[in-house]
Fold:
Amino acid sequence: MPLLPEFLQLHPQLKLHWFLNDNRIDLSAQDVDMAIRMTHLSDSGMVARRIGQVQVWLVAALAMLKHHGMPRQPHDVSRMPCCDCSPTTISSRSI
Structure:
């Protein structure tokens, strides 16, 4: 994204509308020219190019670990209060 401001200066006739969500929409029906998606494309008429990679991190606040204990195996994490943000879903579980 560091090149975006310069690109927009070079092309002032371009209008950029930025929508951030995890809904799968019909791009042509919504009059969208381009989308950045973090997923595998299902069989479709879209053309895809890899523009980068995403690293996934599992992090926790020290206070939360002191209260709930350190998880010892992956299944332990599923019982802890957390926010999950992945390419296909955004959800949260409250404490």
